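Subject: mismatched residue count in predicted assembly?

I count 497 residues in my input, but I want to confirm that the predicted structure covers every chain. Input:
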Amino acid sequence: MYKILIVDDHPIVVEGLRMVLTEYECQTASSGNECHELLCSFDPDLILLDINLPDISGIDLCKTILEKNKRIKILAISSYNQRSWVTRMIDNGAKGYILKNATDEEIKLAIQEVLEGKDHFSPEIAEMIIKKPHQEETFLTRREIEILRLIADGDTNVVIADKLCVSPLTVDSHRKNLIMKLDAKNTASLIKIALTKGLIEMQDI
Amino acid sequence: MSLPTNLYEEFFMYFVIPFKVGDFNITSSPFFILSLFILLGIGFVLFKIIDHKYKQILILKEKEIREQTIKELKTDHQLIASRAVLMGEEKERGRISRDLHDGLGGRLSGIKILLSNLKNSITEEEVKEKLEQALIQLNSSISELRMIAHNIMPESLVNFGLKDALNDLCDNLKNDKKTEISFLFYGEPYRFDNSIETSFFRIAQEAVNNALKYSGASKIVVQLIQDESWVNLTIQDNGKGFNVEEFKNKKAGGLKNIRARAESFDGRFHIDSHPGVGTEIIVEFIYNTEVA
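Triage response: the counts match. Full output below for your records.
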């Protein structure tokens, strides 16, 4: 029989989960410390890990658990459904992520799949991860294009700042950002790259 | 003494004779006159130096006073802007309070009625049906509560910072199929003053919502650039644009909020809009504090 450790500091949630997981041997912990204690004595196969714990974030706890024992499978269960939490849990080694509004069946399925070594995500989460946008290669805002043209014209930071009614510091920052965005070595190659990529045209200069 | 008849005698008379004699007449000695001139010269130079220094101190003091005045004007300006932000927030609180009362409050009352009616249900069918309904209502209430809480203070902002919060914001708003909302980030996601991070977030929220509501744009881009001392937020859309001058005079509204927020933390705010091209809103802030 597989051993599952439930780490969550909400007693009602814990009880609810226990009732669902009758076919497994379960123990519970309500803090990161308790979890570490039970890691040694209980030696679970899977950990149902909540992110909001009183003494440590589930994200960090996930990492420390896996550092101690690589074989353990971690299934995150949380009410946070945003990318920032999900990606961090996955980065730290979680094999699955389900939301707290999941049904009994979903929870059981998730545990099953993760125990088998597969990944499992709530449909909502899966949809979000798959849709991960490929950051558009070279997108310049209208302001950046404006500045690029003025730079190509040979205007200095001060002149550009004057024309656009901003501070020279701002123009300089935009210049540095353009160089970074277009992966240029310096201002001169910046213009060349911009022309090559069709971001500005010869007649603009 | 007879008048000198030639240069030699002149020389003798004025430079040599006075010294030769015992009664050394200082007052007519050329050395005396020379030293007098030298002293006068030194005195003159000293006077010039002291005068210059005095003028320098004056200039410095004037500069201090000018800077002080500018500082005070800036503070006043910021205070006015802060007040505007606070007023906006009070309004927002009113809205949330109404939402909670009407929406969530109503739903929870409905659930209570469903559950208390269970006592009167005779058949198992009725009980099951009522429980189903109650569960559905409960689920919706939880979702709505989360949404309201999230609007009050997005947790990803507090925990992870502006980059993640904006990413999540664009994710959440993406449900409108007609408009493409992208988030772009360049640089390093440094943390800075929490209240200013929040202001930036609110500005982005306001700007994107405005674009969604009024611009009819097919594409909205939210771009965040950060390096160790500078943060730049740009919201650009390809919608129908509007007349910036017209809106400058309005007393209230989303744009006024954005401007007020930017000014409350001494950030730079710039808006550009052309009919047929779209709108671009840029907010910048230079933070000298170190990485949080």
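Residues 168-181 of chain A form the longest helix (14 residues). Marking this ticket as 'not a bug'.
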